[in-house]
Design goal:
Blueprint lengths: L16 H7 L3 H10 L5 E7 L6 H8 L2 H4 L2 E7 L3 H10 L4 E4 L1 H9 L4 E8 L8 E5 L14 E4 L4 H12 L8 E4 L3 H10 L4 E5 H9 L3 E5 L9 E6 L4 H20 L5 H7 L23 H14 L7 E3 L4 E3 L2
Parallel strand pairs: 1-2, 1-3, 6-7, 6-8
Antiparallel strand pairs: 3-10, 4-10, 5-8, 5-9, 11-12
């Protein structure tokens, strides 16, 4: 869920520019529609959790970039992934910031959605998920073989945890999970020693480090294994999608040029603790681009192997759509 990702960096290749232009997802098709369109502003509800992944749209909201592009956008923050999913499936949310796993689940449940672009995770260093411990005796993932780790099932954090453990050659039957769905509860359980370790997003990893806890492994090293994405319900016009992508790209350029200018906005919107407000790293954000086929395929294979998703559901990297329901 959506959820909160380098010495070796995996560079994610861009989807063919021509395809994206035809879909209206890059600036090449967006600039004209945003500057010359005479259509009235369209009301779009953007759903998200309180997370850094959608900072460009908070910048766009605060600097009236949506209005300039001819889009009336309302960003709605949900308290849980379950509520966000319900908003998308009910039709009260048009566009949402989530992850490929949730997107596939929404599609499998009967709601047609498409992936628009990667919000964080075009490279491994963008965004951070990891496994943390407060136990000084634990120094590597091998120390966690057979040890219960706090995590929520059927989440992107479980996927990252399984992948990190597999990459460390920990047998699958030695990966033991303690079901703790709520992130604050999971963090406190780890900090207090109730569980030896926990899978957590970047903001809680940083908070734990500030209090003396240790990150055993995260996904910012080596291969790129996690991404968050912007998705939309099927049926939205290509013109609207082009405008939304143009706004995203403009805000991304602003953040990447002067990230510290937006620190206070990030702290406020992502509810960062005062303990890390001044030091939490502001990520570099990617311009609108679809996730690679291989990135999403690995998530789908994992979901199907876990029984979270029916076999046969596939992703099309050229269009950002799913098939096989």
């Amino acid at each position: 869920m959506p959820s909160e990702r380098v010495s070796m960096k995996k560079t994610v290749s861009f989807v063919l520019a021509a395809v994206l232009c035809l879909a209206g997802l890059t600036a090449c098709g967006a600039s004209n529609s945003s500057s010359k369109s005479s259509e009235p502003a369209q009301k779009i509800v953007v759903g998200t959790l309180a997370t850094e992944d959608i900072l460009p749209y908070w910048v766009a909201e605060s600097e009236t970039l949506f209005a300039k592009a001819g889009v009336e956008a309302e960003i709605t923050v949900f308290q849980s992934a379950t509520e966000l999913i319900a908003g998308v499936t009910s039709g009260s949310v048009d566009v949402a910031m989530t992850d490929p796993m949730v997107t596939a689940g929404i599609y499998a449940s009967g709601t047609d959605v498409q992936v628009l672009w990667v919000t964080l995770g075009a490279t491994a260093e963008q965004g951070r998920f990891g496994i943390m411990t407060a136990d000084p005796a634990i120094s590597s993932l091998k120390d966690l073989a057979g040890v219960p780790i706090g995590v929520g099932s059927n989440t992107i954090l479980e996927y990252v945890m399984d992948t990190l453990m597999a990459n460390a050659n920990i047998p699958a039957d030695q990966v033991v999970k303690e079901e703790l769905q709520k992130l604050p509860v999971r963090y406190q359980a780890c900090a207090s020693g109730q569980v030896k370790a926990a899978a957590l997003p970047g903001s809680l990893l940083a908070l734990g480090e500030a209090s003396g806890m240790k990150v055993v492994a995260d996904d910012t090293m080596g291969e790129n294994i996690s991404q968050s994405v912007m998705i939309a319900r099927a049926g939205m016009s290509s013109d609207t999608l082009a405008k939304l992508a143009s706004v995203w790209n403009e805000a991304v350029a602003k953040i990447n040029a002067t990230p510290e200018q937006y620190r206070q906005l990030l702290v406020e919107k992502a509810n960062l603790s005062s303990d890390i407000a001044a030091t939490y790293p502001i990520s570099e954000y990617p311009a609108a681009q679809l996730p690679e086929q291989a990135m999403v395929d690995k998530v789908l294979v994992w979901m199907q192997g876990k029984g979270y998703l029916a076999e046969g559901i596939t992703y099309n990297a050229a269009t950002g759509t799913f098939a096989g329901r």
